[in-house]
Amino acid sequence: MDPLLYVLIAVLVVLATGITVLLVRRHRAQLPPAPEREQITGPEEAAEPVLHEIPESIPGRMQRLRARLAGSGGFGRAVLSVLSRGDLTEADWEEIEDTLLTSDLGIEVTTTLMEELRTQAKVLGTSDPEAVRSVLRAELLRLVDPTMDRSLNLTKPAAAEGFNGDGAPAAAVLMVGVNGTGKTTTCGKLARVLLAQEHSVVMGAADTFRAAAAEQLATWGERVGVAVVRSDRQGADPASVAFDAAQEAAAQGVDVVLVDTAGRLQNKAGLMDELGKIKRVMGKIAPVGEILLVLDATTGQNGLRQAQVFSEAVGVTGIVLTKMDGTAKGGIVVTVQRELGVPVKLVGLGEGADDLAPFDPEAFVDALLA
Known about the structure:
370 residues; Four Helix Bundle (Hemerythrin (Met), subunit A); alpha/beta; eight-stranded mixed sheet; Rossmann fold
């Protein structure tokens, strides 16, 4: 073959290769950039970079919740509006009484408050709105009772006799309440509150009758970097899951174990048996120090009846009132404390992850009268 023909073929091959390379490079340049790898927020993915949400500080959330509560309105403002009219007629006093009765204060509390307001109005007169406001504020604050201990019992207990597990027991907190009150969500939010206070936490998904409850709690755990002990089997023994969570907390040396329980209220006897068993089984590691009842503040007197059932079942030590914005009437704070003899310790105002904070009696009353 002619040598010139070989040279021509070689040139054609080089040209074809160059054109191919240019086309490939142009194609790659037109492709969108590769997506970044998503950060895994679950604590179990230790090998991957983990990005957890940082809980809002307690002072920060308290300030925000005060502002939100003040903006939601309250029965105190309606009463103050009538008291400030000047010379009150009997019709005015009846309007005040109706307002108090429809605010979930109850008949007994309303009667006592009305008597005190009438007496003070005669002594001070009603021409000075600020004087009347001071009287109403003092009476409402007395009813809410700022002397009640609203701190959570987070002291690490001594191990129960016979406990031979690893580590020291954590302070145990049981979350109880009927379905629909926001109990599981509140459990996750409380974990964030405790983290903001620099406590370490393990959560237990002992609501084994709703698969969604365990999934929801696991999502919260991934969100804030808290381990969640759960069962893979729906309908598993709740007491067993709670025991495993307490054991895990002791083994890890964490400060607090939060246990979410089922909210079924099918019959009183079944509820008492189930919650009593959980408390008793966890007591084999260490006594349960805090039992928080989650109540929907908008349910009013129905919420009070729920509270009584749960209190009889397991011995409630504190109340968490959710949904205290919008249609909540405020009087439920006074009523539930008087009926159960236990304080409202936490209050929720909204759907945000940090919309839960310790209950502040003075801030609450001031918000009602804002």
